[in-house]
Amino acid sequence: MNKVGVTPAVCWMLLPLAIVLGLLLSLSFGASSLSIEQVFGALIGNGNEHGERVVWELRLPRAVLATVVGLHFALSGCMLQALSRNPLADPGVLGISAGASLLAVMLVVGASMLPIGTSFNLQGDQLLAWLPWGALAGGILAALGVYLLSGSARLTPLKLIVTGVVCAAVLNAIMTGVLALWGQAHTETLVAWLAGSLHGRDWHHLWVILPWTLVGLIGVVITLRPLGLLRLNDEQVLSLGLDLGRWRLLVLLVATLLAASAVAVAGPIGFVGLVVPHIARGLVPGNLPHQLGISALLGALLVLVADLAGRTLVVPFELPVGVLCALIGVPAFLYLLKQQP
Amino acid sequence: MSLNAERVQLGYDGNTIIHELSVAIPMQQVTALIGPNGCGKSTFLKSLAGLLRPTLGRVTLNGRSLENWPRRELALEVAMLPQKPVAPEGIRVRELVEYGRFPYQSILRGASREDREVVAWAMQQTGVECYAEKPVQALSGGQQQRVWIAMAIAQQAKILLLDEPTTFLDWGHQLEVLELLTKLNLEQKLTVAMSLHDLNQAAQFADHVLVMEQGTLLASGAPENVIETGMLASVFNVDAEVKIRANGKPCCLAKGSMNRLRGPAWIKDVV
């Protein structure tokens, strides 16, 4: 029995409060700090021009994006861990993040090498507008590849994981090769992006990801019951009347869309999809709907806090949010692991 | 109702385990499937549950081939408890038993009042209602097995297939499980078919016994007609004495393995 368990109601109340608090702090702290009054003034259109600019154009889109991205990664990880019956699964392990990163990098490098690309003269942050579509396509292609290689409808959860690990390694190797050979002009931008970063993200990026958030959440609702069952063994799942192959593919697809769209706007932020579902399982053992919901909230909170820390710890520099997620998430994870019998 | 295997050939990855097996499972009775390790009992049960598609022949439920049954409809007729069921980490007994109601629910329609009543009934029948809010992993092996049976009967299928439901249980818990199944058979008219290793338990609790050897059906019928010294010697390689008990059921007492009489080299060494 797990002694860390708390009542789900407590999590459901405290986590949204923590997220609202985190959002307010994110709006307040930064290169130039604003008081809470200034933040509220700016939010209701009653502040000075500088405050309104900082809040509305820089910090609010970025903070909201951080919560959405965290929610995506955590939900995706939680679904993949249930699907593969393996607590080590996450979008990174299954090759989804690697596929998304590879295609995004190839798109950027390719665009600057081909005549058609140079005519656009893509530089720096402009590249960020291009990345999302490449990343989304890459993530989906990688997931489909892993699915097919692990035996399609006849796959076993273990095969899925092993194939995913192998594919992720290969895709990452190819990406490093592409970066080393042709990436010179964009190395700085791409390396920052690959570490998982929210630097320079604005409303545009939020509009890119929000439709996928909607699709993902609808997908989670639809797959919720079958996903609970998929945690049993195959024979049990089938004799309970669930079409195993079809639902597995659908769950994988929803998890991929969530992860790939998040990679698309923020880069492959690691650890969120791995650590957060594990913490959620510790908080509410057994019950999958609660685990998914609490994972989503925890993921949002973790990335929000990580981004805030990344922006404020080493001013005037910024640490990529992916780095901070690992630095905050992993000790929390190890602590919980130690608490478990 | 009828559940029949018609000249089925079964196997995995081109490896044939069962050749041309034809069996009709008697309805509203308890059937025990016996035979030595590796004779194909589990494989055969899987095919009866529609989990393994025959390479030749067919398994029919009410005259219709299992392949033509939509999974969900089949789940309303046949429930299967595999040998090694898996409980998700941390799941509570009630949540697990509720999974048995899955075939009656849809994506958006949650548990109805009837579902909750059936879950309560299933837990009460199996005597696990006092553990309802406990994590399944915290229970003993015998308690866990009763939880799995609760989940299977919450499915309210007319036919219940069980693959070695008594394995890993101590003597007392084995009897508890078998008594529970015969009670469900008598009270609910539940058709039970299960593989068993203990011949005396098969003799005591089954109305019908199927004897399998190397993928073929060797004998079938009432326990007193099937369980006899010749069969025990040829199928199990055991030199045994069969007595008829006061209730008319046979009871086997092993004298030793046949190898002992034939005397292979390694036995001689020991003697």
List keywords for this structure.
heterodimer, A: 341 residues, mainly alpha, ABC transporter involved in vitamin B12 uptake, BtuC, 14 helices, 77% helix, B: 271 residues, alpha/beta, six-stranded mixed β-sheet, four-stranded antiparallel β-sheet, 12 strands
Could you explain how this protein is built, in words?
- The complex is a heterodimer of chains A (341) and B (271).
- Chain A is an all-alpha fold and 341 residues long.
- Chain A has a single domain, classed as ABC transporter involved in vitamin B12 uptake, BtuC, CATH 1.10.3470.
- Helices cover 77% and strands 0% of the residues of chain A.
- Chain A starts with 7 loop residues before the first helix and ends with a helix.
- Chain A is globular.
- With 271 residues, chain B is of the alpha/beta class.
- Chain B contains eleven helices and twelve strands.
- In chain B, the strands form three sheets. Chain B has a six-stranded mixed β-sheet with strand order 6-7-8-3-9-10, sandwiched between helices. In chain B, strands 2-1-4-5 form a four-stranded antiparallel β-sheet, with helices on one face.
- In chain B, a hairpin with a 2-residue loop joins strand 9 (208-213) and strand 10.
- The longest helix of chain B has 18 residues, at 171-188.
- Chain B is globular and about 65 Å long.
- Chain B starts with a strand and ends with a helix.
- The mean pLDDT of chain B is 91.
- The A-B interface holds A 1-2, 5, 82, 85, 221-222, 224-226, 228-229, 231-233, 235-236, 238-243, 281, 285-288 and B 46, 49-51, 71-76, 78-80, 82, 84-92, 95, 99-100, 102-103, 105, 107, 135, 137-138, 155.
